[in-house]
């Protein structure tokens, strides 16, 4: 990661292959043949330079984008909805993440995380991972232009619905697991999986965002010790600083799955210390309404011993895919977008921001000037930040066609669920009841047959003691605009509770 922006200044190697020597001899022969040529006086002569050779490369700067809405704010900058007004793809909607250099360079870890995010977004291309379109910088700021994800955060959808039925959770978890598996294949661990970092595109498909806490070059047998993430979704081995690898992402997937199915992460408390204590010591309480397949997967994902956690083997995501919870998923069809999402956003226009928090979208978008002047050495840190996606270069002359938008990640400054390293959070006590919705009947290819739905008479538990209650709100209503049919009935307890600090005011 430290070499993300390094420029290779090493001299060429002295060792040359026989093939290269042969090619060089041919070139010398051509030069000898041309050495006697005399150019005619009427020939055009010009100097070879970057401007004359690379004329097709688009020059991107802040003035190429019109600010439309504020999508989010954080300690290091803002996220805007923007429209491109010049060059290729003029008129298209994007999300623009603006970071202040002066804020980033104050902390070596923040600088490293920013460089890692930029590097990973360029390297990783996957259907369920947000696309980086452009990256550029000015003297004071860094700019990331990302695809605009108009479906908003999965967190917003989860807050509206209270909990998901198993077929809905199965769909989202399947797409997320494919994204994580792709990162792991490239030696990248994500380390910040939570509903706020999962976006939905205009069709309702998942897009993983925010790669600031990722760690590169983590392969089999490699561990890292950084304390980072969001407490409620952090694996025990991160909390104990005993060394962690890609297995932490599968723990987080289990915590996310539990959150989807019950209305809150598996271990929560009124403060940070007690939450950590529960993650390390308390039993996992599984509500009786969960199917046998869901209970089994949760227990295997939330194993405190990382070495025996599902997904920890060299097979990684393949072990997840083979679990019976996903037995109705056709993974090839899922990857090819041939399975309809359970929720499709209702969007009225290309710049629709109805799926985002009005706390931000109601603000006037202003990219405030930053008068902070960085030293030359500080600016050297960001060498090589500029980037244009190959898809833009390949289609530089093609006519723009409308594709509904998507959004870059939003961080709320001071939020207990905003990741820092280490996390500092003050949490409110108490839980709030989820919304009550009438049950509706449905059929779905992602749900097991009715006969397969089993209830447990007692709450299943893990290997340590706890007084934690297990309950959840009633099932969700069928989303408006959904084309997946009605949901299968599934029993849920009435008294669902979600910690206030994990809720968002809509």
UniProtKB/TrEMBL annotation:
Residues 327-397 form the AGC-kinase C-terminal domain. Residues 65-326 form the Protein kinase domain. GO terms for biological process: TORC1 signaling. It comes from the Eukaryota. InterPro entries: AGC-kinase_C (IPR000961), Kinase-like_dom_sf (IPR011009), Pkinase_C (IPR017892), Prot_kinase_dom (IPR000719), Protein_kinase_ATP_BS (IPR017441), Ribosomal_S6_kinase (IPR016238), Ser/Thr_kinase_AS (IPR008271). It catalyses: L-seryl-[protein] + ATP = O-phospho-L-seryl-[protein] + ADP + H(+); L-threonyl-[protein] + ATP = O-phospho-L-threonyl-[protein] + ADP + H(+). ATP binds at residues 71-79, 97. Its EC number is 2.7.11.1. CDD domains: STKc_p70S6K. Keywords: ATP-binding, Kinase, Nucleotide-binding, Phosphoprotein, Serine/threonine-protein kinase, Transferase. Residues 495-506 have a biased composition (Basic residues). The keyword Kinase applies. The active site is at 192 (proton acceptor). Residues 404-426, 461-506 are annotated as: Disordered. Pfam families: Pkinase (PF00069), Pkinase_C (PF00433). Belongs to the protein kinase superfamily. AGC Ser/Thr protein kinase family. S6 kinase subfamily. This is Ribosomal protein S6 kinase. The lineage of its organism: Eukaryota, Metazoa, Chordata, Craniata, Vertebrata. The gene is rps6kb1a.
């Amino acid at each position: 990661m430290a070499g993300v922006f390094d420029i290779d200044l090493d001299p060429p190697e002295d060792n040359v292959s026989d093939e290269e020597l042969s090619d060089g001899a041919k070139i010398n022969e051509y030069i000898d043949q041309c050495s006697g040529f005399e150019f005619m006086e009427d020939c055009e002569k010009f100097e070879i330079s970057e401007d004359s050779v690379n004329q097709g490369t688009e020059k991107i700067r802040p003035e190429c984008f019109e600010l439309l809405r504020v999508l989010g704010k954080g300690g290091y900058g803002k996220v805007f909805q923007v429209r491109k007004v010049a060059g290729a793809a003029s008129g298209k909607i994007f999300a623009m993440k603006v970071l202040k250099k002066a804020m980033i360079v104050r902390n070596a870890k923040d600088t490293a995380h920013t460089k890692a995010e930029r590097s990973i977004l360029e390297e990783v291309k996957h259907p369920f991972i947000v696309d980086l379109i452009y990256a550029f910088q000015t003297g004071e700021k860094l700019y990331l232009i990302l695809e605009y994800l108009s479906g908003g955060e999965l967190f917003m959808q989860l807050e509206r619905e209270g909990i998901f039925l198993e077929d809905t959770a199965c769909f989202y978890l399947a797409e997320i697991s494919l994204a994580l598996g792709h990162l792991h294949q490239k030696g990248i661990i994500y380390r910040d999986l939570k509903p706020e970092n999962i976006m939905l595109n205009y069709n309702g498909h998942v897009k993983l965002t925010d790669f600031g806490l990722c760690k590169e070059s983590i392969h089999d047998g490699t561990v890292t010790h950084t304390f980072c993430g969001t407490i409620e979704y952090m694996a025990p081995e991160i909390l104990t600083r005993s060394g962690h690898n890609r297995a932490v992402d599968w723990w987080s997937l289990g915590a996310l799955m539990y959150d989807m199915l019950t209305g809150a992460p598996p271990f929560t408390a009124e403060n940070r210390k007690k939450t950590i204590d529960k993650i390390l010591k308390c039993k996992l309480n599984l509500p009786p309404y969960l199917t046998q397949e869901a209970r089994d997967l949760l227990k295997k994902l939330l194993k405190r011993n990382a070495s025996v956690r599902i997904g920890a083997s060299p097979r990684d995501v393949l072990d997840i895919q083979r679990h019976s919870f996903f037995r109705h998923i056709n993974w090839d069809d899922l990857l090819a977008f041939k399975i309809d999402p359970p929720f499709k956003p209702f969007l009225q226009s290309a710049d629709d921001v109805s799926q985002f928090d009005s706390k931000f979208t109601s603000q006037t978008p202003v990219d405030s000037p930053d008068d902070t002047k960085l030293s030359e050495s500080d600016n050297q840190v960001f060498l090589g930040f500029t980037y244009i996606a190959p898809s833009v270069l390949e289609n530089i002359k093609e006519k723009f066609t409308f594709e509904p938008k998507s959004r870059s990640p939003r961080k709320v400054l001071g939020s207990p669920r905003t990741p820092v390293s280490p996390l500092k959070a003050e949490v409110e006590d108490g839980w709030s009841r989820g919304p009550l919705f009438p049950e509706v009947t449905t059929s779905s290819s992602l749900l097991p047959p009715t006969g397969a739905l089993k209830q447990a008479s007692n709450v299943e538990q893990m290997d340590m003691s706890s007084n934690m209650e297990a309950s959840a709100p009633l099932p969700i209503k069928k989303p408006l605009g959904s084309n997946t049919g009605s949901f299968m009935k599934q029993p849920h307890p009435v008294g669902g509770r979600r910690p206030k600090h994990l809720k968002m005011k809509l």
